[in-house]
Amino acid sequence: GDGLRLAVSSADGKIRVWDVASGTCAVTFEGHVSRNVESRKAMVWSVSLSADGRRVASGTVEGTVGLWDVANGACERELEGHSEKVLSVSCSGDGRTVASGSLDGTVCLWDVASGACVAVLEGHSGRVQSVSVSG
Fold first, then answer.
1. Half-sphere exposure of 112 (CA within 13 A, CB side)
2. Model pTM?
3. Whole-angstrom Cα distance, residue 106 to residue 94?
4. Could you give the C-alpha distances from 128 to 6, 81, 82, 94, 105, in angstroms and in order?
5. Cα separation of 60 and 77, whole Å?
6. Could you tell me which of 55, 44, 42 has the C-alpha nearest to residue 97?
7. 41-51: buried (b, 16+ CB within 10 Å) or exposed (e) per residue?
């Protein structure tokens, strides 16, 4: 339905989108695979559900950002641009941009349509633990 939804990541590498009213899991994503150990799923540190509920962005210990389609459960893109764990992701209000913050001290701004990193913000004295984007 059009009710309240919640995206949750867990240490098993899965992302779940919950229908809050019914208390049921609407969709489960299992696409991030670790580059270090072939048979192991990459742990997802952070998720952000787009305002329209159609997409989930995720950040992994591998330094990648995933873009997931809630309707079909598919990983649309896996974005690479960080050299360390992605600790936080945030979808913009209009759904066109995703921000990611990393242990490498950078913030990447991603164009959702193309998958391109359109800006890298540096200058933080340490890891970037949390990001939130408007617009």
1. 21
2. 0.89
3. 23
4. 23, 14, 11, 23, 5
5. 13
6. 55
7. bbbbbbbbbbe
> pLDDT value at position 39?
46
* CA pair distance 38, 128, nearest whole angstrom: 28
What would the two tokens of residue 27 be?
A: 């969709």
Q: Residue 93 is which amino acid?
A: G
Quote the CA–CA distance of 128 and 24 in Å, as a whole number: 33
pLDDT higher than 80, residue 106: yes
| Nearest Cα residue to 119 out of 127, 111, 131 | 111
The per-residue pLDDT for 34 is 58
Cα maximum dimension of the chain: 44
Kindly report the length of the chain: 135
Residue of 100, 99, 103, 101 lying closest to 127 (CA atoms): 103
* Distance separating alpha carbons of residues 112 and 110, to the nearest angstrom: 6
Q: Which DSSP state fits 43?
A: P
What is the pLDDT at residue 128? Answer: 95
In the numeric block, which tokens belong to residue 33? 């695979």
